[in-house]
Amino acid sequence: MSALPQAVAEWRTLLGANCVLPAQSADALYGGGGALRIPAALRPTQAQSVQEIVRIASRHRISLYPVSTGRNWGYGGASPPSEHCVILDLSLLNRIIAVDAESGTVTIEPGVTQGQLRAHLDGLGLPFMVPTTGAGPSASLVGNALERGYGITPRADHFDAVMTIEAVLPDGRLYRPRLAALGGKRIGQGYKWGIGPYLDGLFSQSNFGVVTQMTIALAQRPPHVEAFYVFLNKEEQLQPALLALRGLLRTTGGVMGGVNILNGYRLASMTCPYPADVLARGTPLQADELAGLLQAHGLGAYVIIGSVYGEAPVARAAVAAIMRGFAHCSSRRVSLTRRKADILCRLASRFPRIASRLGLGPDHASRMLSALNLMEGIPDDVALRLPYWKSGAALPGDLPRALLSGERGLIWYSPLVPMTPEAVVAFQVMVTRVCLLHGFEPLITLTSLSDRCFDSSVPLLFDGRSAAQKERAHRCFDMLFDEGRQLGFVPYRMGSQFFHKLEAENDPALALARSLKQWLDPDNIISPGRYNL
Question: Which of 109, 335, 409, 484 could cross-link with 93 by S-S, CB 3.0 to 4.6 Å?
Fold first, then answer.
C-alpha cells in the first residue's frame, strides 16, 4: 500500500471514518476554487489526537496544512500554499478550557470563535471584552492571534495578548512553555515572556508546529466607551490631521483603542450603494463620481474613527482633548456612545424622512451600532458585507457561508506604513495609481498600531467565479507588493497564495528561520511553504 492510502487508513482508525474526508470532499470544502489538489482532510474532535495525527504524517512523510476555522477571509482561507497537503481542520477543537476571572485570562482551543467566547463570557456574567476583528463572530481567535491580527479594542494587538501556547511539533512531541514545566503554570498564564529564550513566538506566522491550546489576556469592559468621528472634507486636511493624530496618540493613547483613517473610496464602500451605471460600465469609480457620491451622503474626503475607554470622567476628558486636537483641520467632529446610538437608531426608524435629511438612513444607523459593537468587544459581521459592494445583488442571509463558496473574491494587501505625512501621501498615491490601472477602486484604511506606525488594509474586490478577474486581482497585488516594497512599505501579513513573494537577496532572518525549519521539520510535514519557509 502506498503512503497516502496507508496514512488515511491509520487516520480513519484513529479518528473514525466520518472525520477523514476523501479528496473530492476535501477539494470542495477547502479548495476555494484553486488549482491545488487537496488529497484528504482530517477533522479531529479531541486535541489529544493531534499528536498521533502528526506522528502518522511524519511516519509516511505526508504534509499537513493546519487551519483553525478556515475563515481567513482575503488571505487564502483554508487553501494551502503548496500541492498535496492534507488539511488538518481544527475547527471541532472548540473547548473553552478555562476562564480565570481573577487574572482576566481565558484558555481556548483553535476552533473557539469570537461569537462562542462572547456567549460564554455573557453566560458567566463576566465583564470582559472579546478581541474582535472584522472577520466576524464565526472566525477563530487562535488563528487570528497567530497571524498577528489586530482590532480596535484596548488590547488591539492580538498576539501581544497571547500569554502561553501549547503546540505539537513536527515529530509529534508536545511543546509547552518553560514556566509551566518548572511548576509555574498559573503565573505563566499571567506573564508572557517566561524564562530563557522566548519560544512561543516561533509558532506565529510560521510552520514549526500545530498550536492546540492558547491562553490569552482579555481586556475588562470599562464603565464608559465613546467613539469619535473626525470628518475631513478636503485632501489638504489629511496631513495636519495625521500630525494631530500622532500627537494625540502620544498624550492620550493610554485610553484610546486603535484609530482608523478611511479614504473616500473606503468610506463609500461602507456607506453608499455602488452605482448601477458604473457597475454596468465595468470600470472603477472616477474621482469626480466618487466626490458626487460622497457629497450626496453628506461625506467628504476622509473620516477618522476611534474609541476611548475608561471611567466616564476620564473618557469624556480624553474625547474633549481629541476634539480640540483636530479642531484646526476639521469642522465636523462628533462623538457617539451606546445611548446616543440607540436614540439615533430609533429616530431613523420612526422618522425616516427627517433622518434621511440628516444623512442618517436605517442602514447607516445599524452600521454605527455594529461599529460600536466591535469597539466594545462584541463580535459583528458588518465587515463581511464588503465583498458584496460591487456584486449588484442583495446580501445573502448567511454571509460567512456565502463567502466560503468563493463566489465573491477578496484579496487583502496589508502593508506597514510609517506614521508620517510624507510616507502616507506617497503610499496613497502609489495605491491609487496601481489599483485604478488594474480596474480596482483604491479602498484604503490606515489603522494605528502605535504612534509610529500604521497598518494599511487595501481590499481587492472581484467576481470569484471569473478566472480573468481573479488573474487581474493577482496582477494588481503583485504590483502593489513590488512597488510598495521599493518605497519601503512591506506587508505585516500575507495570504497563502503570495507567500512565495517573501524573498530577498540578503535576508539573514529568513535564512535562520529556514535553518530552524530544517532542524525541526526535515521532511516538511507542517505547512510547507508557509511564509516562504
Answer: 109
Q: Can you tell me the mean pLDDT for 238-244?
A: 98
SS3 201: helix
Q: What is the mean pLDDT of the chain?
A: 93
Residue type, 492: Y
- Report CA Rg, the chain: 23
- Are 226 and 315 in contact by the 8 Å Cβ rule? The answer is yes
Distance CA 368, CA 510 (A): 43
Q: In what order do the strands lie in the sheet with 41-42?
A: 20-21, 41-42, 86-89, 64-67
Coil/strand/helix, residue 431: helix
For cell 487595501, the residue is 458
Poorest-pLDDT segment among 365-369, 372-376, 406-410, 514-518: 365-369
The SS3 assignment for 452 reads coil
Residue 43's alpha-carbon distances to 46, 53, 169, in angstroms, are 9, 10, 18
Give the model confidence (pLDDT) of 99-109 as tens digits.
Answer: 999 999 999 99
Contact 10, 17 (CB under 8 A): no
The sign one gets for the Cα dihedral 240, 246, 251, 252 is positive
HSE-CB of 308 using CA atoms within 13 angstroms: 26
Q: Where are the alpha helices (DSSP H) in 61-193?
A: 114-124, 141-146, 178-181, 185-188
CA 478 to chain centre: 20
Q: What is the mean pLDDT of residues 400-409?
A: 90
Alpha-carbon distance values, 346 to 333, 338, 351 (Å):
22, 12, 8
Q: Which residues contact 514 (CB under 8 A, 6 or more apart)?
A: 533
Name the DSSP class of 531. Answer: G
State whether residue 460 is helix, strand or coil.
strand
Q: Is 532 within 8 Å of 502 (Cβ atoms)?
A: yes
Amino acid occupying residue 506 = N
Q: Residue 287 burial by CB count (10 A; 0-12/13-18/19+): exposed, middle or buried?
A: exposed
The Cα 329–Cα 284 span in angstroms is 29
271 φ, ψ (degrees, to nearest 5): -125, -20
Q: Are strands 64-67 and 41-42 parallel, antiparallel or unpaired?
A: unpaired
Q: What is the tens place of the pLDDT at every residue in 57-82?
A: 999 999 999 999 999 999 998 989 88
pLDDT at 456: 97
Q: Hey, is 211 helix, strand or coil?
A: strand
Count of Cβ atoms closer than 10 Å to residue 423 Cβ: 18
Residues 428-467 pLDDT 10s: 999 999 999 999 999 999 999 999 999 999 999 999 999 9
**DSSP class of 497:** G
Residue found by looking up cell 481556548 in the block: 108
% of the chain at pLDDT higher than 90: 80
Cell of 490: 512591506
Query: Could you identify the residue written with the cell 473557539?
Result: 112
